[in-house]
Amino acid sequence: MIGKRLFLAALIIWTGLAATAQRIVYSEPDRDDTRRMDFEIAGKIGGNFLLYKNTRGKNWITVLDNDMQQVAKVEQDYVPDNDRMINVDFFPYNDFCYMIYQYQKKNVIYCVASKIDANGNKIGNITELDTTHLGFAANNKIYTVQSSEDKSKLIVFKINSKNKSSYLLTSLLMNDKLELLKKSRITIPMEERNDFINDFYLDNDGDMVFSKFFRNNNDNISKAAFVVKYAQADTLQMNELKIEKTWLDEIHIKVDNYNKRYFLTSFYFQERKGNIEGLYFYAWDKTKAQPYFESTNPFSEELRKEARGDASIKTAFNDYFIRNIITRKDGGFIIGSEAYFTTSRFNNWNRWDYLYGSPFMSSFNNSNYYSPYYSNSFWGSRMNNNQSVRYHADNITVLSFDDKGKLEWNNVMGKTQYDDETDDLLSYQLMNTGGQVHFLFNQQERRNNLLSDYSISPDGQMNRNPTLKNLDKGYLFMPKYGKQVSSRQMIVPCLYRNYICFAKIEYSQN
After folding, report:
1. Is 95 exposed, middle or buried (0-12, 13-18, 19+ CB in 10 A)?
2. What's the predicted TM-score (pTM) here?
3. DSSP letter at 203?
4. Strand order in the sheet with 96-105
5. 20 to 30 Å CA-CA from 271: which of 139, 392, 467, 507?
6. Which segments of the chain have a pLDDT < 70?
7. How many C-beta atoms surround the C-beta of residue 461 within 10 A?
């Protein structure tokens, strides 16, 4: 799928108010909206819902009103014909959104921006942000675009990895009017052959943070740092993690703008390629320019028993992946993780052989540019269509910690999901209604996939809510591609027969 994986890990402001599902409203499927269509939920603009669609090489913005009725379908014909659209990102504001896309024309990759109004029409002229000249046609993603949480700043960057020992980072920091605030060209030393960089984020001050780590072949991470590129600086600040006797899995970063902190976490191991023992935490205080805390939190045997599914107690978390990091005003945080794996007739899924050796995880392409791994699908492509592989998404484990990493409560949502051709219908999405966090996912009941809604309150109380209203037969939800577009509305794509349509899930106060 083109575009940015939309990952809902927003700052939660607990209000203690309960919310229940009110209704679901569906859009009518368009005859051109087949299940192979590339799409993106741009957001809610001026009361309308904007959807990006790419079909047969043409780019459209479909506009739906609050009743999910189509009011416009506008072809974005300014995207040059016969040029390949490589990637597109949307950044919504109250009355417009930016469509920032990159495409290839001959041996040049263009990164440009258009401004789109609530009716899907382009406002003003197209803005060229940057270009990259290559020695050959590559059609690879080169640019990455990030927005700050308050939407006041955007950063566009690319990383030239031609020199394997010293990458070149080129970044363009802009305000919400796309006016350039700072352009930087900085070298990133890559001392080891198996050094990697990943997980880039932009905070509200315009500072960019990312991780740098060493992983020997498909092994654990044995050395790591988080790196800060301050908004007006032309240097990098490296902050080494103290993990001499600990091995890490995938590193995840979350910016805590309210408390002026960076939060980093990962599953950890006590021996190479061992069993997952628990969670590693590292928090950096921006104001004091020093670590706030660094610790490990092992999983209890009781939690392992509850979360394990079909695994043993020791291997209970070996198939889990961190999906969400949610920060709170009080400095605490919530981590959501999910058991996710594949099986096949030919070989068993193995975290080491598959995850770290996966083609989806490769950050290199044939243009000598390094693109941080990103995809809307956890497995890389919506259209896997590999019938020899069965995809599984099982239990969800949610853990809440205080501002020093001490466990407050935990909950496990039991589920068993699988599909043989694609993982479109698997996994879950979050909906934050203020006083509760809702977890939406499909569950099979009487051979039908029904969208289930579990909610967790600030004190860790978990509830399975009544079946969502207007769950019509024939609609299959793809919740992991959904996007929260307002405080109480979420747009979720659905499959209806062989077409893609969209559903609005709307919550209301009790």
Report:
1. exposed
2. 0.89
3. -
4. 84-92, 96-105, 108-117, 122-133
5. 392
6. 1-21, 81-83, 136-139, 218, 347-367, 370-387, 470, 509-510
7. 11
